[in-house]
Structures are given as C-alpha cells and as structure tokens.
Specification:
It contains 20 helices and no strands. By secondary structure, it is mainly α. Helix 3 runs parallel beside helix 6, helix 4 runs antiparallel to helix 5 and helix 4 runs antiparallel to helix 9. The protein is 73% helix and 0% strand. It has a single domain, classed as Growth Hormone, Chain: A (Up-down Bundle), CATH 1.20.1250.20.
Length: 455
C-alpha cells in the first residue's frame, strides 16, 4: 500500500515528528531486544560450568536461540500488515520480557534450552523495525533509514557483549556467587523490555497519517480482509521467487552475524587465552561496527539507485556480500590475537553493509505485501543462523574450521542476489518515484516544527 507524507530526510535530532519518533523508538526497541536475546551469550562460560554443559549442548542452545525466530518472523510481518507495527511491537516486547526474566530459573540443560528457545521469539523485533521505517520514509532515503535503524538495533549485539559481563561483575562484587549472579543479571534486560513495550505503545503510531485502524475506517488504506493483510500478505510474498532469493542472501549475512554474536566471546576465550571480560569486550567490537557499517550499506544502496536504479541496488548487494565471505575466511585463519581482531573488524564491516543493502531492496519487492516480504527475508537470517549453528555443535570441527566453511557458504549465497530482477516498467516507475522524492519537499519540514502532527 502507498502511504502519504513519508519523510524524505532523516533528521536525527527531531523527536517530535511521527516519522522520526518511529525511527528512534524502533531502533531502540531492537537494540534492547538484543540484550534479552543474546544477554546470556557472554556469560556462557559461567553457565557452562553451572549447568555442566558440553560443547554439543552449548551448540544446541545456540541453535535454539535462533530457531524459533524463523517461525515468529514469518508470522510477525503479516501481523504488521493486519494490526500495524505499533500494536505488534508493543505486544512482542511485553510478552518477550517474561522468558528473559525467567531464564534464571533454569537448573538443567533441558530447562535452559527451552528458555533460550522461548527468548528467541523477540528476535522477530527486527521485522517490525524494518517495517515501521519502510512505511515512514520515502524511496530516496528508505534504504538508509532501514539500514540505520537495523544497524543501531544490531549494535545491541555488541553492547550486550560488553555490558552484560559488567552487570554480572557488579552483582558478584556485592557478594553474590557466580552461579546466582548470571541468573540475576538476566532480570535487568527483562525489565527494560517490559518498560519499552509500554513506551512504544504511547509514543508511536503506525503510519505518517495515523494508526491503521483509523486509516482503514477513513478508507485511506485497504481493509485487513482476505485480500489484504494477514496471511494474504504472506501468500503474495511467498509466491515470488525473488523474495526467497533474498531469503538466502539474508541467511548469508544476518545469519552469520547472529552466529558470531553467539560464539565470538567463547571463541576468543578458548582460543586466545583471555579472561571472560576481555573476551566479551573483543566480541563486542564486532557488534559495535553497527554504529555506522549497516548505515553505509543502506547509503550506498540508495546512492547506487540514484545512478543505476534498482539494478544498482542489486549489484552493490552482491559485491558487499562476496567480500564479506572472503573476509570471514581470512578471519578464520588468524592465529595471533591482534590480526584476529583486525580481520574480524573488516569482516564485520562487510557483513553489516550486506544487511543494509538487502533491506535497501526489500521495500520495493511488493508494496502490497510489505509485511510478508519483510517477514520472509528477515526469517532467512535466522534460518542461516540455525544451519550455521550445526557447524559449531559438531565435536569434530574446531570453531576456526566452522568459520572457514561458513565464509565459503557466504560467497555462494552472494550470487543469489542476481535472481532479484525487476520489469522495465517497475524500474522506470521506481526511478521516477526516487527522483520525485529527491527533489520534493520534506513533509516534516513543510508542516513546521510547531504544527500539529497527523492524527
């Protein structure tokens, strides 16, 4: 569906307009979801000892943490089309906070595995983040907007690696033993998620001109019936082979990032003889690249579209992802800590640029099934993480060997970008829309900072 009054600029210090409020709230929500989703990852050395987990068991929990997200992401996109991103996000945050706080009750491998499986549902927050910015920003800037909100959200993967060991250290310094300490530490992200769920409901709305329920009542957007929204959105998206090509592409970039978030700290802890806090800080560098790296992917996608249209977006995606694969193979072969860190940072740059470039294309795939497309492509990332998880579950493969095989798989996945093609009519239509948005007035600026926002 086409919505009016989309923003044509990103004004970072604007917290009044509905477009920029959605921008800031969506990246913040996704960022905090990482604290719940991967908060336990940098503490796994302690958890492993507490619950007597072997490598296979640890690998199973890694798979569990991302497996359920595949299903929830497939469902959450159509729910956004039907109920709107505001209701959907608020509900996910509040419900998702419960298993995050309750993981501390785990006292065996089985109960810990179930807890990580349930927590994985909050990973679907990414789909809502991308959906919300897609409906708020115009074609000339949507790639950058999507990439920035997702990147700053993914940044949570890095800050989590750094902050959770510190929270754990503070709790232990108060006289709490380590085995109770990791359990209490996980209560913190749970509380934050619950509070943010309430804030998302209060401070955002579905679209520039209002919430979906009001817009449907006014006849401004189609009703959520069998033809529009819900499963209809999913079916439209699922019938397009290009969407599944992007599913594979996203498996090879975001799926890899999720895998690194799960294994980086324990990889450096086991292979480079550093302590838990140092391993967490090093692993956090990988996620911290999201401050700018994913935004760069979206920016260059938009820039490519300026000169080569949608075809330019596809070509840039392939290039970024192919280099990502080469960089990952290089990282896997490093045996000196300094060079391992340097190669990891280069790899991090390109994996996140690839993610930004992917969602620089998604908004143009099928505007009548935006939620369905976002859900399927987003699920690809978690499907990739599930498959990659088996590499690190095997006792016969070292972590370094697993990373090398993963890098080779990424290079293969990059060629799937070329399956994403557009008809001459769509190319011309989107080029005209891009040019119009680039030369037109920004609706946020046009209304004035002190004018009332759309209801």
């Amino acid at each position: 569906m086409e919505l009016a009054n989309k923003a044509t600029r990103i004004r970072l210090f604007d917290f009044k307009s509905v477009q920029m409020r959605a921008f800031h709230m969506s990246w913040l929500a996704f960022h905090l979801c990482f604290f719940g989703w991967f908060g336990i990852a940098p503490l796994m050395a302690v958890v492993r000892e507490d619950l007597n987990l072997d490598k296979s068991m640890v690998g199973s929990t890694i798979i569990a943490s991302v497996a359920i997200t595949v299903l929830v992401r497939l469902l959450i996109g159509p729910l956004c089309d039907k109920f709107g991103p505001r209701k959907t996000y608020s509900t996910l945050l509040i419900l998702g906070s419960i298993p995050v706080m309750c993981i501390g009750f785990a006292d065996s491998f089985e109960s810990f595995l179930i807890a990580r499986l349930c927590i994985g549902a909050i990973g679907a927050s990414f789909v809502i983040t991308q959906y919300h910015t897609s409906v708020m920003f115009a074609p000339n800037i949507v790639g950058t907007a999507n990439a920035t909100t997702a990147g700053w959200g993914n940044l949570g993967g890095g800050t989590t690696q750094m902050v959770m060991p510190l929270i754990f250290a503070v709790i232990v310094s108060l006289g709490v033993n380590e085995f109770l300490g990791w359990r209490l530490a996980m209560v913190v992200p749970g509380i934050l998620l619950f509070v943010l769920g309430l804030a998302y409901w209060k401070f955002t709305q579905d679209a520039p001109d209002g919430n979906y329920a009001d817009l449907r009542a006014a006849g401004k957007i189609p009703p959520a019936d069998r033809e529009n929204g819900g499963m209809a959105s999913f079916k439209k998206a699922a019938s397009d082979y290009r969407v599944w090509a992007l599913f594979v592409v996203y498996a090879g970039c975001f799926g890899v990032e999720l895998t690194i978030n799960n294994v980086a700290a324990i990889y450096f802890f086991d292979n480079f003889e550093v302590d838990l806090k140092t391993a967490g800080l090093i692993a956090g560098l990988f996620g911290l690249m999201n401050i700018f790296a994913r935004t760069m992917g979206g920016f260059f996608s938009d820039l490519s579209a300026r000169y080569m249209g949608l075809t330019g977006r596809v070509r840039f995606l392939f290039l970024a992802m192919f280099i990502e694969g080469i960089a990952l193979v290089t990282f896997s072969q490093m045996e000196v800590l300094a060079t391992a860190i340097a190669s990891m940072i280069v790899f991090s740059l390109f994996v996140q640029m690839s993610e930004g470039a992917t969602f620089g294309i998604v908004p143009f795939m099928n505007k009548k099934a935006l939620g369905g497309v976002n859900g399927i492509v987003g699920a690809g990332g978690n499907a990739g993480a599930v498959l990659a998880g088996f590499l690190f579950k095997s006792e016969s493969l070292s972590y370094g060997q697993g990373l090398m095989f993963l890098g080779c798989a990424v290079m293969v996945c990059s060629f799937f970008a070329f399956f994403v093609r557009f008809s001459p009519e769509v190319l011309a239509e989107e080029k005209a829309a891009f040019d119009t948005a680039s030369s037109g007035d920004d609706p946020i600026k046009a209304r004035g900072a002190n004018e009332p926002e759309p209801a």
